[in-house]
Amino acid sequence: MSTKKRKKSEAPAASLVWFEIPADKTGRAQTFYSELFGWKIQPFPAMPDYSHINTGGADASPDGGLMGRMHPEHTITVYFRVASVARAMAKIKRLGGKIVRPKTPIPGAGYFALCRDTEKNTFAVWESPSGK
Question: Taking a C-beta distance cutoff of 8 angstroms, is the pair 117, 100 a contact?
Fold first, then answer.
């Protein structure tokens, strides 16, 4: 069986870089996930009702956030790194997906866009200012 090599002109595969867990009662969710996985969950500076989830270090899954649920259908959202949020948004639309929240800056960190795939699953694309 031969292995297909990626052409130099192709973009690298998107990788999972962040996740967010919404909760009706964030304290209850914090207790649940801390006890279940041993995650360290601490308030995120200058962001009320948002906590940082430390999943355990460099070899662990990406870190994430715990937040208050924003609407009844608000579910876990995963963030995928892309080279360009704008190009990813165009491709998502071309493939039949939808943009829920357009390119949005996070000062000093990067940009994201919330999207919906063809099956109505919500996900986000993330662009770091350094491209890494």
Answer: no
Q: Could you give the domains of the chain? A: 21-76 (3.10.180.10), 77-132 (3.10.180.10)
- Alpha-carbon distance of 2 to 5, in angstroms, equals 9
Tell me the per-residue pLDDT of 25-37, one tens digit each, with 9 for 90 and over: 999 999 999 999 9
Q: How far apart are CA 114 and CA 124, in angstroms?
A: 4
Give the model's confidence band at 66: pLDDT under 50 very low, under 70 low, under 90 confident, else very high.
very high
Q: How far from chain centre, in Å, is Cα 21?
A: 10
Q: Count of residues for the chain?
A: 132
The answer to whether 124 touches 77, Cβ cutoff 8 Å, is yes
Is the CB of residue 127 less than 8 Å from the CB of residue 85? yes
pTM of the complete model beyond 0.85: no
d(CA 10, CA 8): 6
> Does 101 have pLDDT greater than 50?
yes
* Count of CB atoms situated within 10 Å of the CB of 105: 12
